Amino acid sequence: MEEYTTSRYKVTGKIGEGVHGVVVKALDLHTNKEVAIKKVALKTKYGSTSLHTIREIKALQNCDCEFILALNDIFPDLTGLSLVFDYMPHTLHGRLKNEESPLCRQDVQKYTKMLLKGVEYLHDLGIMHRDIKPANLLISEEGTLKIADFGLARLYAKDDPEKLYSPQVSTRWYRAPEILWGAQKYGPPIDMWAVGCVLAEMLRGVPLFSGTTDIEQLALVIRTLGSPKTFDWPELKTLPDYNKIRFPHSNGQKWESLFPSCTNDEEIDLTAKLLTYNPMKRLTAAEALQHEYFQ
To answer: Does the keyword Cell cycle apply (predicted)?
Structure first.
């Protein structure tokens, strides 16, 4: 723990350890505020420069939005860099797990709106987050939701639809179907699918699609939403892994049966329009914010 301590920050404990770094809690001695310090490596285990770290810093330096966790400071340490953020006491994942204080419908609506505003801001900047999930959505003491963990974020080329990106992104349960079928040409709609999964999880209390492998994940999506129709999504047949596996035909489940506690049709309608197979027909963040659910 000692290596984190600088003349300005005094470490008070460990918060957690993610794929891309250790996170500790510290006191900013200049402001007397609690902060979170994320230690990231500059080099990969193979000795090359870490693209995750560079992309995370680049994405965060471009952001100035109340619904995105702000990067306050950067300083070098023995093995890489330390990124300093405001300390957030809660994650959406933690709130969903808290059975003593379940989310009320107003919380769900409030958090969805904040998430959409943050995603809209990122997409306007030309940034795909590529790992939206409850564990990466932090909640302040005042109840503001902020998008965090930009280790997989990527600037996307708005004017180059042929540009290829890695399909090895997003946590499986929140991964869009085009990526599960191996797409390398994709864009902001992958984040919108993840937002739909997060909204569904808030409404249900449990994840909507929780596969243990990519094939099982696709099978769950198809069993739930029904088999995708190629006349509705013509590009489906061109996806790299489309012909590698056949799934039994499914008519899907009724949305009402998936959300038995929902009495509000708008909640289900918004979820359905985010969890649409064809990425071109999926709502954008700006469109979702205009949905009746928020009116």
So the answer is: yes
